[in-house]
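Hi C.,

You asked whether I'd gotten around to modeling the 181-residue construct. I have! Everything is below, sequence then structure, no commentary in between.
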Amino acid sequence: MVARPPLKLQVEPMTLDDVPDVHRIESASFPTPWPDYAFRQEIQTNRLAHYVVIRAGSETIGYAGMWLMVDEAHVTTFAVLPNWRRHGAGARLMLALMHVALDLNARMVTLEVRLSNHPARALYSRFGFRPVGIRPRYYSDNNEDALIMTTAPLASDEMKERMAELERRYGDSDTEAETAE
């Protein structure tokens, strides 16, 4: 195997041109993926929606979205291509999403995650999300429960310190990842 140089990870707002790649990632990540028109609709008509993509070089490798509902940012979707997981892309993507929430003056961030998705739960915990409840039979493919996780107030000293540390670790716009195989 020939060693490849690391690729820079770039996070950008999602556009309509990104939808085919996003749908490919969605289909590779979830048993019941959103249809591609749902992403187009979110970008074009949902004034609450804010979506970003992450690229390694020119390849779109992940995406995330949230809705700002009053003063709460609610993560609606988050995925990284399977072969790019555990290369820092998810952390870089989550950091960007947290910055979107801060820019929107969200008070806190909330999400749901499958109880069985331990890698995602660990990532979210690193970003200050804590379990606050269960949504029974939330996932339609197998009726698995969802764990509701939320952050402390983003303006709290705890979250400011956590964000500063995460920024030092993942926030450099020159963040690099090893090429996934």
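If it helps when you're writing up: The chain has a mean pLDDT of 91.

Thanks,
B.
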